[in-house]
Design goal:
The chain is mostly beta strands and 270 residues long. The chain has 2 helices and 12 strands. It has a single domain, classed as Beta Barrel (Lipocalin), CATH 2.40.128. Strands 1-2-3-4-5-6-7-8-9-10-11-12 form a 12-stranded antiparallel β-barrel. The longest helix has 8 residues.
């Protein structure tokens, strides 16, 4: 996911910002793949802190719509992007269609149940349901649902803007979503890769640790590590399921070169 702008006093944050950003990751080509790939995306990146629409101001949810929020409960509409992969670069998928970019979106209910508890960290429990759409040019295709509970711990280090997050996320998905990654249609079956119809169920569990570090008023660095565990997954028997554990490294920077005079707090009071 793409990083957020540096943490500041919410009352002083701009309604709009324009940033130069770059995001990179190195990890499995898809869940439970033994093949790895690197992705690097430099891009201009806007930040908007509106009353109902928020873009780029949260590391976990770069795009989200606010539906309901109190001090300890929030309901958002979240968006996420999952990188695609070229099948000819993956031994198990050679000759099969590429895995396109996935756009996932849906509601997330988050409950805060600890305020500055163990190790001075806040603790949250979230429930997420997202529909997934693959994008091949301008032709989107629905690929099913992915849903997960998530346990998250977040700690801020004083007023420095530094923040650490630990997330534990078991994931489940419908048959269509599973088939996108693990299904082998008859046309692509070989002696080493038999036909396989994937079923819905448990996909795997990820544990992620990330750190956000503002290094100057306009510059922020962000990075972390994510470990996926796939033992016991529903489709372990698929010939495309080739690894039971995989590690992903990710990092980013963001430089803010412009911000609006209008502040976000004023937008919330309209």
């Amino acid at each position: 996911m793409i990083p957020a702008a540096a943490s500041e006093d919410p009352a002083s944050e701009a309604l709009w910002e324009l940033n130069i950003a770059a995001f990179g990751r190195y990890g499995p080509s898809y869940p439970a793949s033994e093949e790895s790939q690197g992705n690097f995306v430099p891009l201009p990146f806007p930040v908007y802190r509106g009353t109902f629409l928020r873009i780029g101001d949260d590391t976990d949810s770069p795009i989200r719509g606010r539906v309901f929020r109190t001090d300890r409960i929030k309901l958002d509409i979240d968006f996420d992007l999952v990188f695609g992969s070229e099948s000819d670069d993956i031994a198990a998928r050679t000759g099969m269609p590429d895995l396109d970019l996935l756009l996932e979106l849906g509601p997330e209910l988050e409950l805060q149940f600890v305020d500055r508890g163990w190790l001075a960290a806040d603790a949250f429990l979230a429930f997420q349901v997202r529909g997934a759409f693959s994008w091949d040019g301008l032709d989107p295709a629905y690929e099913g649902l992915v849903y997960s509970p998530e346990l998250k711990f977040a700690r801020e280090f004083g007023d420095s803007g530094r923040e650490a997050k630990l997330r534990i996320t078991p994931t489940f998905a419908t048959g269509g979503y599973m088939d996108y990654y693990y299904g082998v249609a008859p046309a692509f079956a070989t002696a080493e890769r038999p036909e396989f119809a994937a079923d819905g169920g448990y996909l795997g569990t990820e544990i992620a640790l990330s750190l956000r570090i503002p290094v100057a008023r306009r510059l922020e660095l962000w990075g972390g590590i994510r470990q996926g565990f796939y033992s016991g997954a529903k489709n372990e028997d698929s010939p495309l399921f080739t690894d039971r554990a995989a590690t992903t490294f990710f990092g980013a920077f963001m430089y803010r070169f412009w911000e609006s005079e209008r502040r976000a707090e004023a937008a919330r009071e309209d």
